[in-house]
Backbone:
């Protein structure tokens, strides 16, 4: 078996981006690129998935992994995406809904405290300003140290308990940019001043022809080997076995598969819980 050098497994957006950047060969399990960040079409009355919209436009479009939106305003990333096809830009308008009171509070809640009433707003501001110092060990600790107990109990705790499947009290804090803390904006929002929109998802773009076209255009810029589902990774021999009976040797392997799946394929046993 010829050793081809360095390889990438997984032809989702991450694997495709790595392939474009590095020039390495990408091995993808499916017959199309994109992974969970892709689209497909179904014509009315038809049961076969189409990975391009029919010419007459008579088809329903679905997302394989649910709704994936391309957030942010990184100029380099946006220029790259726009070079692959036309996109449409959207401005996000969202609110936090408190079902028990029927109250809607514009997002982000920490910058719109006036909606919660003067008493809660004053208490929340005091807790944010007088936040304890130190290094939080978990996401739960970071949230309370950043926003105080009042906002944590009202919103951040129940939200992140669902968002992390109950792991927010155990996992390390991450993605601080998703919950920005700005005392000046919080104070302004507590005294009825309309704060500016902040956060990573204030605006987002979506390819007009669907995520599948974005993935296909990315795949055209790198070498993708389809139908190569990784079944086993022999780290001692630096070899991958695919489910079709073929294999490939490597010097270095870039895996964009879920970490637990890659560990399982490699036969690595760990004591830590996933």
Residues:
């Amino acid at each position: 078996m010829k050793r081809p050098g360095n390889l990438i497994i997984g032809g989702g957006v991450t694997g495709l981006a790595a392939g474009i950047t590095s020039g390495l060969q990408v091995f993808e399990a499916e017959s199309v690129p994109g992974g969970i960040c892709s689209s497909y079409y179904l014509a009315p009355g038809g049961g076969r998935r189409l990975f391009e919209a029919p010419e007459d436009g008579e088809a329903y479009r679905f997302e394989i992994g649910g709704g994936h939106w391309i957030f942010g305003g990184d100029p380099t990333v946006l220029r790259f995406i726009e070079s692959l096809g036309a996109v449409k830009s959207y401005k996000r308008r969202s609110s936090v809904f408190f079902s028990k009171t029927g109250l809607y509070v514009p997002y982000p809640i920490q910058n719109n405290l006036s909606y919660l009433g003067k008493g809660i707003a004053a208490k929340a501001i005091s807790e944010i300003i007088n936040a304890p110092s130190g290094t939080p060990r978990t996401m739960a600790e970071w949230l309370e140290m950043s926003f105080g107990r009042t906002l944590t109990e009202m919103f951040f705790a129940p939200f992140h308990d669902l968002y992390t499947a109950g792991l927010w009290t155990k996992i390390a804090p991450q993605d601080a940019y998703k919950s920005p803390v700005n005392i000046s904006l919080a104070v302004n929002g507590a005294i009825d001043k309309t704060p500016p929109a902040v956060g990573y998802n204030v605006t987002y773009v979506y390819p007009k022809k669907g995520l599948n076209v974005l993935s296909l255009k990315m795949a055209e810029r790198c070498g993708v080997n389809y139908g190569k589902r990784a079944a086993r990774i022999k780290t001692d021999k630096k070899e991958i076995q695919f489910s079709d009976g073929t294999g490939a040797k490597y010097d270095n392997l870039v895996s964009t598969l879920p970490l637990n799946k890659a560990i399982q394929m490699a036969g690595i046993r760990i004591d830590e819980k996933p």
Observations:
- The helical segments are 13-22, 75-84, 118-129, 139-163, 183-190, 211-219, 259-265.
- The chain has a mean pLDDT of 89.
- The first strand starts at residue 7 and ends at 9.
